[in-house]
Amino acid sequence: MALTGAVAVEAPAVALAPPDISLTNIRTHLQQFQTIANNNGGNRRSNTAGYTASVNYVFNALQAAGYSVVKQNCTSGCTSGAGPNVVADWPGGDTNQVLMLGAHLDGVSAGPGINDNASGSSMLLELALTLASQNPTMLKHVRFAWWTDEEQGLNGSEFYVNSLSSTERAKITGYLNFDMIASTNGGYFINRISSSLGQTIKAYYDANFPGLAPEENVEGAGRSDDASFNAAGIQTSGIAAGASANKTSAQVTKWGGTTGDYDPCYHASCDTFPSNISDTVLNRAADAAAYAVWTLAVGTPTGNDFSMSASPASGSTSAGGSVTSTIGTTVTSGSAQSVTLSASGLPSGATASFSPATVTSGSSSTMTIATSASTPAGTYTVTVTGTGSSATRTTTFSLTVAGPPGCSATNPTDVTIVDQGTVESTIAITGCTGNAGSASTVEVHIVHTYVGDLVVSLIAPDGSAYTLRNRTGGSADNIDQTFTVNLSSEVANGTWRLRVQDAGPADVGYINSWTLNLGGSTPPPCSGTNGTDVTISDNATVNSPITIAGCSGNASSTSTVAVQIVHTYIGDLVVSLIAPDGSAYVLHNRSGGSADNINQTYTVNLSTEVKNGTWTLRVQDAAANDVGYINSWTLTL
């Protein structure tokens, strides 16, 4: 299957210094894959929910970074029920010259598959994200792939290669494979080391670690996804750190370790994070991969240019709090330039400030994101833009907002439910002492055209799963329901997740919003929900009522109104809360222009209003042409 090694050639000159790939970020991805396995039966085999969740994690990160990403279903040759390949193209470069890099995303059923092969998958993901954040000039087109069903016979990559036309195959100038690149007793192996691609990788090790002397990957020959490309006549190489073969005494002298297995947990339950990962071997492999991409595909920049980064790249805060990150800039070509910083993608009620707001490329600024008490809980991708005199560059920061301290919170952020996929939406509970209540409630609003496809579960902070709905309802549309759950054995504080699995073909939808009320030691507020759809006719006014009874005294100064309205032009709408005494509180007044839908929680001072009585959500459509409906709304007094 393997092609005869080509005569070694000198690696081309590096046009732009390759970046240092963040080991910290790779470890974050590894932890995520471990968590996914923990939450899905302990493994990520290709035909399980664990693999589906792995696909969604990679797909969403790449899509947010600006890649053109597809999930390629393996329609022949794969294990029954196997999930898709993930294939991502970075824009730019000569599309007739494609450098491709891949790693298999699936694991075996015996364990979570962290070294085999979350190590290669995590490194490849962080490499792709780094390429996106630096956005260099590209000579060749770069394509990344995460393969399904490798453990069952290289099936995903073989399907991909066989699905290419001869013209498309000819465009792939080389394929680099990364499989088990962090073995704890590992070695330094290069696939087809004598090929021009192999020599490029070897050049990195030789220059940075003299005496390390990587060797040919004899053990892995024909056993990973590069074999599918070799069989099609495509030049390949890649990196590995060894599997179940024994390290020789000569290799121990050269690389350290023992004469035992390269990976003592190969295809075993102990292949876990962090115990079965060598940070040193992994870090070197990541930087060698970056060297190969920048050497083989990145062009010589012209003019003055810079790159950007955020450190840390993620942060969390409760609503009303703030979080900071250092935004760094680096001159990548030419001279330094003045760069003005801005941020977009912030949730409502949040602001971003920079100190200083303008920097000279090569220096840094402190970004502070401040949230308000009304900022909706959820995770948001904030794009930080640096506008320079000669170039504009971006980086991203992942912001997680927990609800205000207390035993109840809402996540109103839409989450797309892909066909036959599994997705999650999170709520972080803070400041709620003790355990949750025996009559805790989970209010769920899901838009979906065939609810009989759906399995809906609440996942506690310790990973315990509570099934709320299991493929009931047949062909009915949408779920607007409040479930009562005995959570008295669960500690209230922590991150709770609403998990939705689409277990049938053809229909899709999204999580619209959900509210968790744990009824812990803090008494729950008086609240109610109206989940009945109310049609909003053109140029008309409609009402949706909620009756509150059994609550003493006046409402709170921080009462909330969670509104979910489906409408194709929200700039037409005036949305008001009408108190029992007829007082009107305007929540939304023809703002938002042509944007679709309102999914927002409003904080209103209702301290002058008696709680008990009939409250009304009034929606006026004040312009022609667009219509919609009130999906649901929740009043918490």
Characterize the structure shown.
By secondary structure, the chain is an alpha+beta fold. Helix content is 18%, strand content 37%. It has 9 helices and 35 strands. Strands 1-2-4-3-5-8-6-7 form an 8-stranded mixed sheet, sandwiched between helices. Strands 10-17-16-12-14 form a 5-stranded mixed sheet, covered by helices on one side. Strands 18, 19, 21, 24 and 26 form a 5-stranded antiparallel sheet that branches. The N terminus is likely disordered.
Write the layout of secondary structure elements.
Blueprint: H1 23-38, H2 49-64, E1 68-72, E2 85-90, E3 94-104, H3 114-134, E4 140-147, H4 155-163, H5 166-171, E5 172-178, E6 189-191, H6 196-208, E7 215-216, H7 226-231, E8 236-240, H8 249-255, H9 279-297, E9 305-311, E10 314-318, E11 322-333, E12 338-344, E13 351-355, E14 358-360, E15 364-370, E16 378-388, E17 392-402, E18 408-411, E19 415-417, E20 422-429, E21 440-448, E22 454-459, E23 465-470, E24 479-485, E25 494-502, E26 509-517, E27 527-530, E28 534-536, E29 541-548, E30 559-567, E31 573-578, E32 584-589, E33 598-604, E34 613-621, E35 628-636
Parallel strand pairs: 3-4, 3-5, 5-8, 6-7, 10-17
Antiparallel strand pairs: 1-2, 2-4, 6-8, 9-11, 11-15, 12-14, 12-16, 13-15, 16-17, 18-26, 19-26, 20-25, 21-24, 21-26, 22-23, 22-25, 27-35, 28-35, 29-34, 30-33, 30-35, 31-32, 31-34
